[in-house]
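A sample copied in:

***
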Amino acid sequence: MGSNEPLNLTTEEIACENHFRKNTIRDDSGRFIVKLPIKNDKLDIGDTRETALKRFFSLERNLRKDPQKKRKYLKFISEYRELNHMELMTQLPSDSQSVYLSHHAVVNENSTTSRLRVVFDASAKSSNNRSLNDNLMSGPVIQQDLFSIISRFRTFQYVLTRDITKMYHQIRVNYEDANYQLIFWRDSSDKPVQTYRLLTLTYGTKPASFIVTRCLEE
């Protein structure tokens, strides 16, 4: 992990780092493709479909009461599809090989760019009281602490910064593990509910912060 490798890692953090090294590849364009670091390489989770479907219907009812929020939500989902961050499932995996994530809107009135953000809930409990996040390893914190960053910022006369557009979405999740990121959606309540698969690293999953920072370091 380089000269900044953290010390005193937990057993899980070491396993998560080893999992990244062993299972991360890059495609022809250089884009990272990762596998989700599942504890003991075996998913222990019950039914997630029923809860996700109930919460989707609840989301629809709430959006009908707020047309402006609904338009923003539709815009977000449409962009997700257009950018190939998710795809429509034509053949569903077995229940034992799939996880359905609920989603909802978070509104930040102080944001100047995107006041509405869709959050995918990887911590929702399944029928056996375990969530997707309960099954995932959490990697170590590998970015420098804030004090070190500020100190370095004050060292030189000139400073360069950059922003990575849709940072988490630049990283793809391999197809098998993307089945653990299924969601329900339909653009209108008079259409059938459809199942989509999220193809990129999902903010809100336990190892997402580690993975995105680790890819930057790599």
